[in-house]
Amino acid sequence: MTFPLPVIDARPSRRGLFQALGAGLLLADFLLPRAALAATRDVKRKFVFAYFDGGWDQLLGLDPRDPASNTAAAQLIDPGYDQLGYGYSSRGVQTAGSLKLGPAVPPSFLQVAGECSIINGITMDTAAHEVGRRYFLTGRFPRGLEAVGSSTAGEILAQIGESSPIAHLSAGVESYADHLPSYAGALRVNSLGDLATALTPIAALDPKIKAAVEQFQDQGPGCEGVRLDRDGLTSRLLESVRRSRSYLTSQLSSVFDLGRNDAEMAALRTLYDVGAAQGDPSAPEVMAFAAGQAIKKNVSQCVSFQAATQLDTHANWAQDQAPRQERGWKVLGALIRDLKRTPGSVAGKSMLDETTILAFSEFARTPLFNTIRGRDHFLGNSALVAGAGLKRGIRVGGSAAVGQMPLETELVTGVAYENPSQMMRESGAVQMLTPKHVLATVLASAGLDYAYLRADPITALLAG
Amino acid sequence: MRSLASTLAVLLVACSKQSAAPVEPPPLPLLVRATASPSMPDGHPALHALAIGSRGPRRMSVDQLERSLDQLADLPPGTVKLPADLAVTLGRPDYQRVTEEQLEPTPLFMKFMLDLGAIYCSNLAAFEPQRPAEQKFFTRFATVGENVRYLVLRFTGIEGSGADAYATRLEAAYEQGSQAAAPLGGYQTVCVSLFTAPEFLLY
């Protein structure tokens, strides 16, 4: 007696194997090939994670639609561009190479858009800010609101090791480091002022007192401290003491001193339009400047920063969403330009060629307006990637023509399908993109292990 | 005596005769099945070997830190108040973007604790002469050893033989810090050392 076996694609995928061989193989997941492990790890790679806070409207940014052919009645998509203020409404759907960008994207970003690629049709499986944000930060779906696992930046550092004074800088973005080496934990600051606090001694101790205190600290904890180390908290505290001391001795404060009176800093103030921050040390312009300096000056290997704020426009969408999102694209564009014009460690290469950038938000906003002409939380999403290890100027994935819900995407080609065949689904060739796929792509771009994410990278985006 | 015993025996027989009427036998006691342990998944550690679950140690919150600093120096409650933006930096939620307190002893937090410790302890040293004898912070007792033990108690609650090892190490730190030009340099050293110690910041 024979049983019909399902057809398995010549290139075995996880889904195909499981469906063909049964759930028992779930336990043998470790047997599956790990392509990422075979690739060479780029331990010199740097990473930037740009977070757009509040949930961006992808119709104004990464997934625009032509108002002439998209209506609320027919396509259940209302671009609403005509409601935007002067300067935005006239932009409409903008083109940069083969990329299409919405009216919130400023001309300054269009100039560097060719360095970027867009991922559309990401499903978030949540409409809660904390959940979406933490899902994109860690690549693991939160437990309730609680983050699971570590920030991707921390996971990266655990793999590539520490080679900079503040390996992980997180400016205005949450960070998590669960059972990772201490250097993978972020120096988390909310503003440039915080960073100055971390890098500058506020109170000067007498050198002899300082030496005596440090000697006491270096002796380790007493009996009670050992008892408190049940979960490793005492060890982490003492490691933090040592790290805080090393920040001071590395004398990095001048790197982030916006008030420095020299030509280099003057040029940076202009590039990042620091004047627009109006003295706010946590403004996106200032955060992007700090991110750029940390990467360029080899202060950090991974930087997360808040590129845009207050995008949660349930109301006042027409007034607020476009200018706030535009501000994020401006600072991200400035950062890309800054890295591109800075020579890299290899002759002929720029810092952008050695840095991978991911811009994301916790989710997008509904394609239809609510009753107060705002947009609510939408399950679909998009992301932007740029820099090292990734193809530039392409778009992968997509959203439905009606309703803009995410479509399944073929990982190898990046093509989105409204109705993929059963065979494509069963073989795992097409998958619904999630933050896991995006982060797996970022990791794979540097030859790093993405197995913990339990998702495949979008190979269509990988360069080389 | 013998007659009393025989009388009691008669009474007992009488009682037993009265209760000798046919009655239903008592029900058997419930049989409790004693098993070595409930069925557990393969590889699960033995239940008796598991530690008693309780919450893990935590770092002091910013509110707790403020109140502790009041208590330490016998200040009226609410005297120590960190600036709002600094408190957010140290982990206090702002309830706009962050709704739970971040209680990890991060490098930024510890850097700040070192700074705050330096300011707090030097201020205490500067005001020490103005304190009444019974309210002295650093020099309440006659000997360095006693004062160091008092500081250990104030900061950490550790006393008696449990404080012996701390006292030894801190007295060495005191000796080293005493060479500083700062007033009460030795005691300032002890103060800052305890300020940044896990025994003070964790509980």
Characterize the structure shown.
The complex is a heterodimer of chains A (about 475) and B (about 200). Chain A is of the alpha/beta class and about 475 residues long. Helix content of chain A is about 30%, strand content about 15%. Chain A is built from 14 helices and 15 strands. Residues about 1-15 and about 15-35 of chain A have low confidence and may be disordered. Chain B is an all-alpha fold and about 200 residues long. Chain B has a domain at about 60-200. Chain B has helices at about 1-20, 60-70, 85-90, 105-125, 145-155, 165-175, 185-195, 200. In chain B, helix 5 packs across helix 6 and helix 6 (about 165-175) packs across helix 7. Chains A and B meet through strand 6, helix 6, helix 7, helix 8 and helix 9 of A and helix 3, helix 4, helix 6, helix 7 and helix 8 of B.
Q: What key phrases describe this protein's structure?
A:
A: 464 residues, Alkaline Phosphatase, subunit A, 3-stranded antiparallel sheet, globular, disordered N terminus, B: mainly alpha, 8 helices, 48% helix
